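Human: If only I could read backbone structure tokens as easily as an amino acid sequence. Take your time, and here it is.
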Amino acid sequence: MGGDSLIAAVRSGDAKAVAAALAAGADPDTVDEHGTPALCLAVDAFDLPVIEELMMSARPVRLNCTAADGHTPLLRAVDRGACEITSVLISGGADLGLTDAEGRHALELARHWHLAGAEAELRRRTGASEPVVCRRVLDGWGNVCAELSLGGLTVRNGHTAILTELEPRYGIAPPFEELMGRALTEPDVDQPVWPATTLTLQGRHAPAVWAQAAALRDRANPLERYCGAEVMRLVNLFDESEDDLFDGPLVDLFLPWAAREEDPRVMRALTAGLAGAMDPRAEQPLPALTRHHDREVRRWAVSGLHRLVAQGDPEALATVMACARDADALVRAGACRALGMAPKDSSASSDALAGCLNDEDEAVRVAAAIPLFVRDDPRGDQVLRDLGPVDDDSPYFAEFHDVRYHDRALHPAE
């Protein structure tokens, strides 16, 4: 029932239509006229929302289904360099041991692409000689990646990241320097190989990892310094011990490091680490860093001032109010969220929020209106009304939690 409508919805990339077809009784394992299952079609299209709808179906979808080429959805995701889809399928229970027509399981397929290089492998498969078309895109999790197309075949540049993330699942742990070497070939630290590398190293939970990362702080190559700072930041961020084991050592290293660091990529990691540290010393450089020339550094610095703003610290409050006029919209939105932490009797913070209600960026207007609503200040109500219903597809759904459960929303005036 509803097989044709399901395939049509998958092909159109309409996740809501997919959900409706499944709710009406469509089989999530429906295949198209070529025998390709709906899940494989969604993987081919890099369509994570549709994949998630199929995986959440009341009738469980077969994660290890195969198409005519013998590829399971997981193997297709690996083949196409789709990091986030690979992760979702594995988390859902996809079989890591199944192989393609050449006998390669997921790890071996990822390693093949890593060693060959995406462009060379595209040329080998397609036989095309024209230039590869490359564009910068966002994946299903909003992360930056490169998409390469040649001869009718499109892949993304996530193969090395997938290899790095898969290796621990197969009991493989390459040395620190080898993993870092993979990442160093990519100067853009927003590309998939960087978070895959730093998160994999952080996940080893070994004292040697901290020492190796710390030793990178004096390297001449800023990408090596970035790797060290980011790994230490993540080790501290995900540390679950009750005694803040890494907070003090991180601040001891990051404070003098941040004072001399010139590369903006490294400064982002250092500022993020200081912003997330519980040691009060970490807050010392943050006001000055809100004026850094790199906007991501400014965003992280603002996020680290929440505690001081909540305490009513005059310098922190003045700093964040100034950030509400920053040239970057994300910095302004972050400043509004920080101002929302100020004591409710702070008229200065409320007035600063009200001053952002006419911002050219909708996200800034919403970030200003929400704390005003929670403070029972009606000046931002019109901004919230203009949004209409905020359902779980809205980018503001999570932010609306305090609005949704506030007394004014639960018991509106008659």
